[in-house]
Amino acid sequence: MKSVKLSLFLLLLPLLLVACVHTQTDQVYRSKTTLQTKQPVHRQQSLVVVIDPGHGAYDLGARNQYCEEKDLCLKTGHFLRRHLEQRGYHVIMTRSRDEYVPLKKRAAVANDARSQVLISLHFNSAQSESAQGIEVFYYPKGEPWRKKNSKRLAQTVLSRMVASTEAFSRGVKEGNYCVIRETKMPAILIEGGFLTHKEEMHKIRDDRYLDKLAHSIADGLVQYFEECK
Questions:
Q1: pLDDT tens across 81-128, in order?
Q2: Which residues of 16-38 are buried (b: 16+ CB within 10 A; e: fewer)?
Q3: Given this model, what pLDDT does residue 24 score?
Q4: Measuring CA to CA, which of 10, 65, 100, 197 is 20 to 30 A from 59?
Q5: 42-65: pLDDT as tens digits
Q6: Helices (H) then strands (E): counts for the chain
Q7: Running DSSP on this structure, what letter comes out for residue 68?
């Protein structure tokens, strides 16, 4: 009897081994399938933002013995790009290095990309050494919806910048600048501070301050898009 049982066991052993291997393989396959079909994290890839760092190359912008506006705009632009991309936005820059880009071409970049907004970055100067603070411009003419949203964007971004940096607010203003006039989407031009004001200039020279500025602009943009939903 023992001999018969042993014989049956030996006959069934290969079948048991095959079944075991098949079960393990099926489990591994299901595990891989689960990982491969896991839903991706939702991102704001459909939202396109154009960043326009002002000036460039021989167009220096405002300057003093320590720095030039064109360099400050580009640094801030790269900081802003990083903060927006981390939030999932698709970012295009009108210039990403020290080069001259005509104003109408800057506007055309945003129009061709069909971006949702354009943000032009600048820094200020004045004859009076007491002039200081941040101001944001929008174009007050054209299609009513663009005017309305440009003003709302300007107000939201300025509010975030002032709250973050504690800089003096010079307010939201109307402006007839090419990059915000010739674009077809809501657009603003930011003057991030005065290079002719001693205390403000020392802040602006610090990359950490420029990064803080950029972070607050990104926060304002996120708030704007949330309010537009």
A1: 999 999 999 999 999 999 999 999 999 999 999 999 999 999 999 999
A2: eeeeeeeeeeeeeeeeeeeeeee
A3: 47
A4: 197
A5: 445 579 999 999 999 999 999 998
A6: 7, 6
A7: B
How high is the pLDDT of residue 229? 83
Other CB atoms within 10 Å distance of the CB of residue 13: 10
Q: Delimit the domains of the chain by residue range.
A: 1-38, 48-228
For residue 102, which of 148, 55, 70 has the smallest C-alpha distance?
55
State whether residue 56 is helix, strand or coil: strand
Beta strands, E only, the chain: 48-53, 90-93, 117-124, 134-138, 169-174, 187-194
The yes/no answer on whether domain 48-228 falls in CATH 3.40.50.1980 is no
Q: Is the pTM of this model over 0.85?
A: no
